[in-house]
Amino acid sequence: MPDTAANWHERARALEINGRAFIDGRYVDAASGATFDCVSPVDGRVLGRVASTDAADADVAVASARRAFESGVWAHQPPRERKRVLLRFAELILAHRDELALLETLDMGKPIADSLAVDIPATARCIAWYAEAIDKVYDEVAPTSRDALALITREPVGVVAAIVPWNFPLIMAAWKIGPALAAGNSFILKPSEKSPLTAIRIAGLAAEAGIPDGVFNVLPGFGHTAGKSLALHMDVDCIGFTGSTRTGKLMLQYSGQSNMKRVWLECGGKSPNIILADCPDLDRAAATAASGIFFNQGEMCTAASRLVVEEQVRDAVLEKVAAAARRLVAGDPLDPGTRLGAIVDDIQMKTVLGYIESGRSEGAAVLAGGARVRQDTGGYYVEPTVFADVRPDMKIAREEIFGPVLAAITVRDAEEAVAVGNGVEYGLAAAVWTSDVRKAHRIARALRAGMVYVNCYDADDITVPFGGYKQSGIGRDKSLHAFDKYTEIKTTWIDLS
To answer: The whole model's pTM is what?
Structure first.
């Protein structure tokens, strides 16, 4: 079938929506029978009804995961067997690429071209990469004296619950599924109520791949019911969370109120993208600044939402970025030519529009955008918006907006740029554009962020850690470092004297 908007809409009309939970190897309704509407941001229509799970369902899922873990049906499998199954899981995700991409776009609003080219392949690559790592990560022997043998071994932590956001539903889930299952844990996934459909679908693919019953479970529902129940559960050993800083703090409280479960957090960001006067390529820097904030409708924790520009190049950079914003028009997410899709739901759209109004009221200048568009579709769309004359104390310069809104701040020199960059509660990502390699190193070290990009933005590979400083979180996703989150380190001391 040709890759056209008409054909994607035809597929969407024929798509069967499964909204049930997945517990102990089968799809089930919520114990209470409760459901909620899954609304598409593309056009505001109800895609289907989704199970609204709560504490009762969490109890069943956790008990199933615990039984599976204690039985060793997964945790005790030889590494090569877990590897084989997870590789098969990744293959099935790719085999269902079109279906999963369509679900992702309908549910979350991102362009179908991005779902196809980015989200689904990245999900499969992540799971396959951790599968390949299973039999390549070695334990250690400590350098003790000759009359002792000290072994340092990794063991799965047990039952892992992952609570993931709506902006990259499958990718964020895969960053936790991959290392947690590779390490031998049992796993419970709580997707966002705003975008649960792909998580529900891949549960069936996991079972088809050979992941045993109880090892992979999916609990759709709301954060204050399903999510809170998992975070407070006395038999969940670890929570992997990606979402807002406010909710991340609740995860820490829930851990203290329950069993001191391990809590790993990837939270908000307000990332500075610093363009200095000696930038090697202003055209590229400006184009990257635009894509860094407008990709995925700006709904990214790493969004380059603060453009920090040295005054000598301010006008040239802002002119180029504003022009790029004006060229980027929100369109039908099911059209393969669309580059800017819909905001995930009406609530988030109103939040973004509220920030735009705040920027205006505090005196920032709108260079591009600033309005809702495509109301006739029934969907939720906001123009790419560029603010100039932003002060660091303005709300749009301090708070995470999670939408296509750029705040441009002018600075006198590199020292002020670093001070502005570090002047928020977040520390997820940052970037600096300069021709001076010594200056690049100094600024990269000075920026309090988990990821610093030099003459680029949001460069990505599964081999490098992802996470932040300060209130952007605790721990790292991706790379071999992710195994640290889902394993216990055990020392076994053998007396040889």
So the answer is: 0.97
